[in-house]
Amino acid sequence: FSLDLDAFRIEPLSLSAAGGTVRLAATVEREGGGLRGQLRVDGMELGQLDALLCTSRPFSGRIGVEANLGHLAADPALTGRARLKGAAWGEIPIGDAALELRHEGRKLTLRGSVLSGRGDGAVSLETRSPYPYTASVQVSPGPLAPLLPPELLPAAMSVELAGAIDALGSLKAFSESRGT
Q: For residue range 98-126, what is the model confidence (pLDDT) as tens digits?
C-alpha cells in the first residue's frame, strides 16, 4: 500500500479467499474518491462464498473473474468477464458459463453462455443484503439429461428440451426463490 498527496494505491495484492486467489491493483484518488484498477479472481469455490452458504442445497464449482475497476471507491464499478466451471446447486448441474460482467450502482449483471453452452442467460443481483436477484435462461434444443441430476431421468429414456427459464428471489432466502 502507498499513500501520497494525490492518491491511496494498492500495489498488486494477492489474497487467498474461498479456496481461490484474489489479485487486486487499484488507485483511489484523495479528491472525490475516484477509483481505477484491475481485479482478478482465480479458482474461488462457490460453496465457500458467504452469500451462498445458507441455501437449502450446497453450491459447488469454481468461479474466475477478470475485471477493470472504476467510478468511486464508495460505489465501485466493474467491467469484465466471469467464468464458472463445474457449477451445481446440490445435485442439480449448472455447468460451465462464460459471461460478460458489469457492476454499477450496487447491481451486478452477468450475461452470456450458460449451461455448458446449452443456453444464453442473464442474471442481475443487488450486491447488498438480502441480495435480490432475477435470472433468465433461453435453453437451446437438445437432450434434457445433462441438465438434470443423473438419477432423475432413466438412461433408456431420451427427452429433448428447449425453452425459457426465469427465476427471482434473494440469496439470503434462496429456498424461497420462485421461477417459471
A: 999 999 999 999 999 999 999 999 999 99
Which cell is 108 given? Answer: 451486478
pTM equals: 0.79
Q: How far apart are CA 12 and CA 118, in angstroms?
A: 37
Q: Cα–Cα distance between 145 and 148 in angstroms, integer?
A: 5
Q: How far apart are CA 168 and CA 29, in angstroms?
A: 37
d(CA 55, CA 172): 8
Would you put residue 136 in left (φ > 0), alpha (ψ -120 to 50) or beta?
A: beta
Cα–Cα distance, 5 to 66 (Å, whole number): 29
Q: Give the Cα separation of 136 and 111 in Å (integer).
A: 10
Q: What is the pLDDT of residues 20-34, one digit of tens each?
A: 999 999 999 999 999
